[in-house]
Amino acid sequence: MREGAMKILVTGTGVIGTTYAWQLALSGNTLVHFVRPGKKRALVERGIRVRCLDQRCGRNAERETVYQPAIVDDFGPGDGYDLIICSVNSHQLAELLPLLADRAGDTTILFLQNMRPGDDELIDRYLDQSRYVIGYPFKAGGGRDESGIDTVIFGNYLSNTVLGERNGRITPRLKVLHRLLAGADMNPKMIRKIVPYIRTHYIWAAASLGAYMKAGSWERFIGPEITRESCLAMREGWKICERQGIKPRRVAPTCYYYLPLPLMVPLIGFMYRDGGMRRMFEGHVGHSPEEMRTMYYDVLGLGETYGIDMPYYRGFKRFVDGYFSRQ
Description:
Blueprint: E1 7-11, H1 15-26, E2 30-34, H2 40-46, E3 48-54, E4 61-67, E5 70-72, E6 83-86, H3 93-103, E7 108-112, H4 119-126, E8 132-137, E9 140-144, E10 148-153, E11 161-164, H5 172-183, E12 188-190, H6 194-215, H7 218-221, H8 224-243, H9 261-272, H10 275-287, H11 289-305, H12 311-314, H13 317-325
Parallel strand pairs: 1-2, 1-6, 2-5, 3-10, 6-7, 7-8, 11-12
Antiparallel strand pairs: 3-4, 8-11, 9-10
Helix pairs in contact: 3-4, 6-8, 6-11, 6-13, 8-9, 11-13
């Protein structure tokens, strides 16, 4: 990968891909979005509305703009891209991978998205590990509608864009990506254990979703009773990771959730009182209900496969089913 300003292709116009692309464009890079046939004309004509709560620099700045990148409905190895950013819903990944394998050429692909357990292995069926890097966009999140996105860019120093190679090495291209994202003020962090990170984080998100459905309101969700249940459900879920050879207590920030509950519960409640966290969480649930439901059941099914007793996690099931039956 080369240094300096890049020509970057982003798959789709979802919340994560658009947020990162918008920030990368503002920092001097050329951004192009690949969309399905039939969507190009409307996006070229109107652009993408971006409504953003930007919490960087210690402030809550509301920003609204129309982001107007180049839009294409096809691409190939001769298009001169320096980087391809893949940010799609996890259930869309299998459909996209054959296309990337066929058309990306030698361009590095950054998978910057939520990944289901086993997605890393699915990628390996189509792409050699030399062709891609895995990332997690913990710096931003939100929801979308037909006209654009409603996103949050967090200012907390713990809110990172996490980057890692499958082999655990800190490679020259990883450092190039780090500098690229640092230039866009997206707080990148290189780690050696990217697969343990994405798998433990998936369970964190699934347990949080179940707790949110049971709570029925944000105020109750961040209260001590539901927060305690969500922590215990996460610990149950992380036993799945242990069966997969991952040690959750050695993965940050998962390891902190093993602190004594009297310490951890109020700390989580304090962090979740942030308005950006609420906006991000509610945006995720509203924007991708099917992905959220799949996430909960993925973890439930893995627990059953491994014969793990998960009473707290399973206790969320009727609330998850009830919520999504009303959608």
